[in-house]
Every structure is written in structure tokens, then in C-alpha cells.
Specification:
By secondary structure, the chain is mainly beta. The protein has one domain: Porin (Beta Barrel). Helix content is about 10%, strand content about 50%. The protein has 3 helices and 14 strands. Strands 1-2-3-6-7-8-9-10-11-12-13-14 form a 12-stranded antiparallel β-barrel. The chain is globular, with a radius of gyration of 19 Å. The relative contact order is 0.17.
């Protein structure tokens, strides 16, 4: 089956999944046209509260490998660490946890504007019982809420997404991405629902041989159930069912230098949800490097 036919099939699967079915891997955008890439990224949230010690955040090694015309295998392994000074005799507590790894297939010619992906995030992440371990899991979700299921124990994720990417003759980049996400509760707890979300994003920027600079808006909308009890007043509005209550958005700026096969980059993400900025983290800094060949 050629990549064009597969893309048509993927489009149908993604559309049907909106009524019963996930999106991006840890690397939200595909910028490795024509190359294999091995990457490592460190996500460091500016957490609210005192006592957070270095390094508190997530470290994510990943890879994108071509396996034929129009096909790539992609994978990542999220690792999260939290360290906090509790003061007094408690001292400093820290924990390291491995999250849920991703394995997927990207479909589409790099030279073409449209590509898609199908993938699975395996639920092998530990379910910590200690406070330090629970904090580590929470920090991972805060560091990259667009992909919080990478750090959430007992959740298996299926993904399907489509991405449009176009670069003009003057190196102006425009891209959009979207698709559904299905996070499945695998422990059979009736109090924990499986969830269906719609993930989406758009970006603009400059894409040239020596550098990449982009500004992006990404979001996630909960399709299945609201993030609050379903009980609503008999009259008046129902905030639990509002778009604001069921969605999260981030604004991100990224700069990548392309020094031959080595590509260092920096990203600053700002949550647009005020409650998330006030309670979790005011911003997230990501530093990384790719080795492309």
C-alpha cells in the first residue's frame, strides 16, 4: 500500500475517532525532513511554591528513523525527576520515575506538505506510593501538559493525527496539526474514566538551512466528559461543560540552530490558562539537541 493510500486511510481513521478515539508524540512538530534524528530534550517548569531543587523536570530521549519511502518509526522514553527541600529534619527528598514510552509510525513523504502518524503509548510507568514519587509524576504532567499521559500511571494511549507543513520560497513556515486522542484506564477502576481528547495546534515562523524560529499555539479539548461533576444548576449556565473548563492552551516560542548534523534548540512555553499559571507553573523552559543524519 503506497503512502498516499495510507494517508487517505489515516484521514478516515482520525475522523471516525472523533466520536470514539490520540495525537502527538513528545515531539509535537515534525522538523526532521529528509533525515534520521536522535534527540534529547529537558523540560524544566518554573514551579509554584518553595523548595524545588535542581533538577526537577522531565528528560525525554527520542528518535525518528526512516524505514522506507514515506515511512518513519518514531519512539520516545520519558523520564521525570523531582527534588524538594522540605526543611528541618526531613531534608531533601527526590525521586526518579520512568514514564510511558511511545512507539509510532509517521506516514507521508517529507517533501509533501501533509503527513500523519499512528502510535501507542505503553502503560509501563510506575504508580508511586511515596510523596516524592507522586510529585515526580505531577511534575512530568506539568512540564508538558499536551502529553500528560506520558507520565500518568495505568493509562494506555492510542494516537492518530494529521499535520500540514508548508515552507515558502522565502523560508516562511506555516503549519497546523490536529487529531483525536484516546487515554484508556487499564486498571478497571470504575471511578477513573477513559477519556477522549482533541489535540490541535498551529504555528508560523522561519525555516532555513541554518536555523528555525517558530511561534506556536497548541491546545487540548476534552471531548468525552467535563473535568468537574456533571451536576449543574437547573437554570443558568453550566461552567463544568464550558469550553474554558474542558480545554487547555499553551503559547510556545522555539529557536533551533542547525550546525551541520548537530541541532541545539530552546523552547519557552507559557500556559494560557490562568489557573494553571497560578497553581502549577508560570512557564516551562525546554532545552534540547538533535543529532540528524
Amino acid at each position: 500500500m503506497g503512502s498516499t493510500r495510507v494517508l487517505r486511510f489515516l484521514f478516515v481513521v482520525s475522523a471516525l475517532s472523533l466520536s470514539g478515539g490520540v495525537v502527538q508524540a513528545q515531539r509535537y512538530w515534525h522538523d526532521d525532513q529528509g533525515r534520521d534524528a536522535f534527540r534529547i530534550d529537558a523540560w524544566m517548569p518554573f514551579l509554584k511554591g518553595d523548595g524545588h531543587k535542581f533538577f526537577t523536570g522531565a528528560m525525554v530521549p527520542s528518535a525518528s528513523i526512516r524505514v522506507g519511502d514515506g515511512f518513519r518509526v518514531e519512539a520516545d522514553l520519558p523520564i521525570v525527576r523531582a527534588s524538594q527541600d522540605l526543611g528541618g529534619i526531613a531534608g531533601t527528598q527526590s525521586a526518579v520515575r520512568i514514564g510511558n514510552p511511545y512507539i509510532g509510525l509517521r506516514i507521508g513523504e517529507d517533501a509533501k506538505p501533509v503527513a500523519g502518524s499512528l502510535g501507542l503509548r505503553l502503560p509501563i510507568g510506575q504508580d508511586p506510593k511515596d510523596a516524592a514519587g507522586q510529585q515526580a509524576v505531577a511534575v512530568g504532567a506539568i512540564a508538558n501538559f499536551d502529553d500528560f499521559e506520558a507520565y500518568t500511571p495505568d493509562v494506555m494511549t492510542f494516537r492518530g493525527t494529521l499535520e500540514y507543513r508548508k515552507v515558502s520560497a522565502k523560508n516562511i513556515l506555516f503549519g497546523v496539526k490536529g487529531g483525536p486522542s484516546l487515554q484508556i484506564n487499564i486498571i478497571g477502576d470504575p471511578t477513573i474514566d477513559s477519556e477522549i481528547s482533541l489535540d490541535y495546534g498551529a504555528r508560523v515562523g522561519y525555516d532555513a538551512t541554518g536555523a528555525l524560529a517558530t511561534l506556536a499555539l497548541t491546545g487540548r479539548y476534552l471531548l468525552s466528559v467535563p473535568r468537574a461533576p456533571l451536576t449543574c444548576p437547573v437554570t443558568g449556565s453550566c461552567p463544568a461543560k464550558s469550553f474554558d473548563a474542558r480545554s487547555d492552551h499553551h503559547l510556545s516560542g522555539t529557536v533551533e540552530l542547525r550546525l551541520g548534523s548537530v541541532r541545539p534548540r530552546a523552547t519557552l512555553r507559557v500556559p494560557l490558562d490562568k489557573a494553571r499559571r497560578d497553581n502549577d507553573a508560570s512557564a516551562i523552559l525546554a532545552l534540547g539537541v538533535s543529532i540528524a543524519r
